[in-house]
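I'll show one example:
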Amino acid sequence: MGGSVLKHAAVLDIGSSKVVSLCAARVGQDGLAVYGADVRAYEGYCAGKFCNIADLQRAVVESLAASQKECGFKLR
């Protein structure tokens, strides 16, 4: 496939105190192009539970919206 850009992927990582989202695609055999990325903090995860579900939801929605705006692709 040479230097062609392949299908885009959206990634969401929910950590113990922050949410990371990004939109990326493989380029060629070994490359990766990141078109949009965002990090949002939230109250966190402790004692086996999310401390504040509403805060986690806010962080996820805001992070995905920011990544989508930056990359220019509709994330599904």
